[in-house]
From TrEMBL:
This is UMP kinase. One of its GO terms (molecular function) is UMP kinase activity. Its EC number is 2.7.4.22. It comes from the Eukaryota. InterPro entries: AceGlu_kinase-like_sf, Asp/Glu/Uridylate_kinase. GO terms for biological process: UDP biosynthetic process. The gene is ga00875. Pathway: Pyrimidine metabolism; CTP biosynthesis via de novo pathway; UDP from UMP (UMPK route): step 1/1. Pfam families: AA_kinase (PF00696). Residues 2-141 form the Aspartate/glutamate/uridylate kinase domain.
C-alpha cells in the first residue's frame, strides 16, 4: 500500500511541474509529504480548483475489508465526484467472451454488462457501488503519452463504464500503440 502513496506523490510532482496545484491525502501520517484524509478538506481543495489525489486511503481508516478500488469509489462518492478515473498499464477493456477473438476493445459499456462479462479491471463491489451512486468510470492506459491529461480534460480515452453503456467496440489492431521511453 505504501506504493500507492509513492505513486500519488509522483503524480502530484508531475501535476505541479506543469502548474496544477495538487494535494495528496492519505490515511498514513506523513506530514512532510501528504495530509490526512478528511472529506471536508478534500472538498475545500476542490472548491479552490486544486486536484486532490488519494493515496492509501483504505485499511487504516476503518475500511479493512475494502479493496483500493472500492475505497476509491467510496471517496469519490463522499466528495460528489463526477467521474472516477482508473489508469492501467495496459490498454482498454477487451471483449474476452467465449467465441470472441479478444481484439475488440470497448469504448462504452454499462455496469451490468461489465459485470456480466466477468471484467476484472475493477472488483465487483466497486463497480456495484459506482452503479448505485451513478459514478461513471473511465478505464484507460496511463502509459500512453497524454492519456492522463486527456482523461482529466474529459476527452474520450479508454473505456467508459456507466448506466447507459451502449456497447461500442473498435478493433485493437486499429489503435495507435506506443510505449513509454
Amino acid at each position: 500500500m505504501m506504493a500507492s502513496v509513492m505513486n500519488a506523490i509522483l503524480l502530484q510532482a508531475s501535476f505541479e511541474k506543469i502548474g496544477i496545484e495538487t494535494r495528496v491525502q492519505t490515511s498514513l501520517t506523513m506530514p512532510d509529504a501528504t495530509e490526512p484524509y478528511t472529506r471536508a478538506r478534500a472538498i475545500r481543495h476542490l472548491e479552490k480548483g486544486r486536484v486532490v489525489i488519494f493515496g492509501w486511503i483504505g485499511t487504516s481508516m476503518g475500511n479493512q475489508l475494502f479493496t483500493t478500488d472500492t475505497t476509491a469509489v467510496l471517496r469519490a462518492s463522499e466528495i460528489n465526484a463526477g467521474v472516477l478515473l482508473k489508469g492501467f498499464t495496459r490498454d482498454s477493456l477487451y471483449d474476452c467472451a467465449p467465441g470472441s477473438n479478444g481484439n475488440k476493445a470497448f469504448e462504452h459499456i454499462s455496469y451490468k454488462e461489465f459485470e456480466a462479462r466477468g471484467a476484472n479491471k475493477m472488483d465487483v463491489t466497486a463497480i456495484t457501488f459506482c452503479e448505485e451512486n451513478n459514478i461513471p468510470v473511465v478505464l484507460f492506459n496511463m502509459l500512453e503519452p497524454g492519456n492522463i491529461s486527456r482523461a482529466l480534460c474529459g476527452d474520450k480515452v479508454g473505456t467508459l463504464v456507466d448506466q447507459t453503456g451502449t456497447i461500442n467496440q473498435f478493433n485493437a489492431t486499429d489503435m495507435k500503440v506506443s510505449t513509454p521511453e
